[in-house]
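ENTRY TYPE: paired fold submission
RECORD: A
CONTENT: sequence, then structure tokens
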Amino acid sequence: MPAFVASLSIGLVFCSVFLLEGPARYLFLPLGLSVGLSVMASYLLSRTLVPTLVRYLLPAELAHHHAPPGPFARVHLAFLGAFERLRQLYGDLLALALRRRPWVLGLFAASTGGALLLLPSVGRDFFPRVDGGQIRLHVSAPPGTRIEETERHFEAVEGAIRELIPEQERELMLDQ
């Protein structure tokens, strides 16, 4: 059952990548596809190839189990001992949390409330708006307009810009 739940959650994440829009879609679609396909391939191999290899390779490993441990086995045994101590510490902390349920629930409620207070400061857009202080206008004259007429057209546009934006706020104006 846990494998089914894991594969279902990965499938939901995999499908949610297709629901993204805009720049986030172009950024995360390839990443989501590669992660989703690799997790699915890993799941397939863990259910097919790995049990087959265990069936054929484990009896040979069990025959060497009673031999004195080599350097890699000693490192492995040291890691297992450290991991077991960490697991015991986690179990002790979990038992402590279960004995002090009101404190744990209060701490959880306080941290959740603090996070909810920060909610208005979270942006709604994936990419925040950036004001580079630059305005670009693309103005074009109808095809076939004489150069002199086009220059007058651009001068009128620049004049309108000079009226709207004060001199101290303008740094440079270019036209092509």
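RECORD: B
CONTENT: sequence, then structure tokens
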Amino acid sequence: MAFPNPQSKPSHQHLADLSALADGTLAPERREAVQANIAASPELSELLARERVAVERLAEARERDRAPQALRERIERERERERAARRGAAVRGGSLRGGLAVRAGLAASLALGAVVLVLVAPGGTPGSPTLSQAAALGTREALRPGPTPDPSNPGAQLDRSVGEVYFPNWTRAPLRWRATGQRIDRLGGHRAVTVFYARARISIAYTILSTPPLREPAAAVRHVGGLAVRELTLNGRMVVTWRRDGHTCVLSGRNIDAQRLAQLASWEPR
């Protein structure tokens, strides 16, 4: 869906696509087209950059502390009202630049307010996310560069962990999977960190959730190197999941089989 020309007023769908691209929820098959549309408009490119700053600030706040469910719902309602105001400005025929300026100001104000609220609010009540929801985080876009090797143990782990469970460093032979990006989410009261790895043309996502562990799915169990992993297919992606020190770990990807994912899950540095 392209704009007729760079000065056209964006539709509701265009702006919704921009927001989804900024927070990583846009469907992968639509990213290239949406990015091309935004690149054709300096105003939209600037707005996308501001949206990404807002998303990053919220992610940092979520990483430091946990907001109660009621507060998270309030923030989402504020974001929806702000989206409605943006759409109304476009329908009323306001200039693109003016409408985008209002949009960006609202987004920045909401993000800063949310950061403050998250930091001062007490912890919320954990929910009960499903494995499917956890695996879906791996289909979203990375919001940060991939973590670098941990200086204390660079050959074994990356400088990113959830509790005491670190993400592995798979860059060395024979694995040769490099960390290409990461994102941090909240899922039903759990802190969820996802690191994306790539080798050749294959990409996989490794998510670790904070304790307590999620309910294990009714799925086939595979034993590899003393580790029991459960394997299943969700929305066309192969998924394996296991528990480590009270944390739920999820590894998923396309064009890769369960045995290969299970071998990565059971990898231990020599």
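NOTES ON RECORD B: The radius of gyration is 20 Å. The beta strands are 144-145, 157-162, 165-168, 178-187, 190-199, 202-209, 220-224, 227-234, 237-244, 247-253.
STATUS: closed
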